[in-house]
């Protein structure tokens, strides 16, 4: 039986994002939201924290799924980029 997929969104409406496995989406989404609940992170810090959080129990490219889901969460207005230099990510 084929796993369910979700069409992820992209913050730029002119671009499309990927269809990914729902279970992987939910795993990465939960981890990103948990990580960002504590503080703001640069892109590099966020991806490293995500990798450390899920690496032992996640099958697939953590960075690739992390980027895909991060863009989706931005498009859904759950997280946002700050205007600081360097840019950081935070919960909306």
From TrEMBL:
InterPro entries, per the entry: DUF6958
Pfam families in UniProt: DUF6958
Domain of life: Bacteria
Annotated protein name in UniProt: DUF6958 family protein
Organism: Pedobacter lithocola
């Amino acid at each position: 039986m084929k796993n369910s997929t979700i069409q992820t969104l992209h913050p730029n409406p002119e671009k499309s994002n990927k269809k990914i496995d729902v279970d992987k989406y939910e795993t990465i989404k939960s981890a990103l939201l948990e990580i960002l609940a504590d503080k703001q992170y640069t892109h590099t810090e966020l991806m490293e924290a995500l990798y450390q959080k899920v690496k032992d129990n996640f099958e697939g490219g953590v960075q690739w799924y992390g980027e895909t889901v991060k863009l989706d969460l931005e498009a859904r207005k759950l997280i946002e980029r700050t205007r600081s230099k360097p840019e950081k990510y935070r919960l909306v």
